[in-house]
Amino acid sequence: MDAIDRRILRELQADGRLTNQELAARVGLTPSPCLRRVRQLEEDGVIQSYRAVVDPAAVGRGFEVFASVEVRRDRESVAAFEERVQAIPDIVEAYRLYGAPGCLLRIAVADSDAYERFWTDKLIALPGVSEVNSQMIMKRIKGPQGVPVG
Fold it and tell me: Cα separation of 43 and 69, whole Å?
């Protein structure tokens, strides 16, 4: 990966809707080689996907929670937990961590009552869950900005 690839990545992380023409102009290439580079970055898995960033409050999910979840430490429990988490749309991000807690989830629901229902009906019912600690997000100070690419 060279400096031009890194510029392409920076530009696409800032605005994934750039046309190839616009992107090429911003990174100092003509459209053909720019498109080849973007396709190569996609094929190599460097660019994993394109998506819109949606304001949670605008779609009725402005109550966000970080839930620290402890899961029994055996392969079957962890695998079952991770599989079920994938299928729950209210869980918008999920990470397995080193140490304790074992997992960190970001959950987006409508309000406190919706989170209580989610906690009772889904979260503590997940396979292997032994403990949940919820932290409500007061204010997003900095949202996802992409990965620094140098």
Answer: 35
**Measured between alpha carbons, how far is 107 from 134 in angstroms, rounded to an integer?**
10
d(CA 122, CA 90): 10
Cα gap 63→36, rounded to integer Å: 42
Q: Which residues, at least 6 apart from 84, have a Cβ–Cβ distance to it below 8 Å?
A: 126, 127
pLDDT exceeds cutoff 90 at 30: yes
Q: Measured over all CA atoms, what is the biggest interatomic distance in the chain, rounded to whole angstroms? A: 56
- Mind listing the pLDDT tens digit for each residue in 107-148? 999 999 999 999 999 999 999 999 999 999 999 999 888 899
Global pTM value: 0.84
